[in-house]
Amino acid sequence: MFRRRTRQFLYAGMVGAGIIGILFAGYAVHASKHLQEVRASLKQQYEAEISMLNQASEDLVAGWTLAREKTAGERITRQDLASVTMAVNHVPDNWIRASEQIVGKAVKITVSPNTIITESLLYEEGAVPDDLRYREMGFIQLPGELKAKDVVDVRIQFPTGQDYILLSKKRIESLSPGVITATLDEAEILLLSSGIVDAYLHKASIYALKYVEPFLQREAIPTYPPSDAVLQVIRKDPNIVEKAEHALTSSLRAGLEGDLAAVSPQRAAEFVGGKSGMKAAQPAQSTTDSFVFDGAQGE
């Protein structure tokens, strides 16, 4: 009896072990199949990513960006450039890729570092003419916020209200109190000389107006017509230009001194102390805006 039960237990254990073995084998087969599917999926995914990377590497283009900020009108040097590689679909069509097409040109607007350099950002000035000269001018009424490298038109206004452009789109090369320096060619020098004498003879005013976006705005066309009478005066007395320029400069200085004399000692002390610097600067602004040589009315 005992042996029969033992054999039954053994048979039952063997059957259970067989079932467990079958289940384990089935699980192993399923797990192996799933693992193979995962491997195949990962392999396919990696191959797709590698293919995309290879394609992207083929579509990369090299070009240039700015390494430092450049203000409007500044020329770009080789040291201002930084090489960069980007995907072709992430850059504009007019992106400049050759440094030779960038160096020596100037930017139209202020450009921050890491900006992609395109053709529309740059301009190139023409060749420097042989008759170009620096001209200092201390007889022009200047805008209150004028700075070096600003661009202006120089105009002349007569007491009759007639207003003409003497010089167009001149860049201020340097600026000292009341005196600007710009480059003029021979024709502009002669035109300016005529305007100076005209202002001296007819009590006109010569003043400057600043461009808002000089490298985006078109150059104005000079409209001042020098009269034969003025040209005859210049021919007869070459020193008349110097006399007229001196008279205009003296007139500007006289107006400035008159405005300064009108400032009260208390107001001057406030200006020196820095308590109301902006208010103390207003009389000088008024001089620029409204003072006219020998009583002529300006803008």
From TrEMBL:
Keyword Transmembrane helix attributed: yes
Domain SAF: from-to ranges: 61-123
Keyword field: Membrane, Transmembrane, Transmembrane helix
Pfam families: ChapFlgA
Region of interest: Disordered: 276-299
Membrane-crossing segments per the record: 9-29
InterPro entries xrefs: SAF, SAF_FlgA
The keyword Transmembrane helix belongs to this UniProt entry's keyword annotation: yes
Protein name per Swiss-Prot or TrEMBL: SAF domain-containing protein
Organism: Paenibacillus aceti
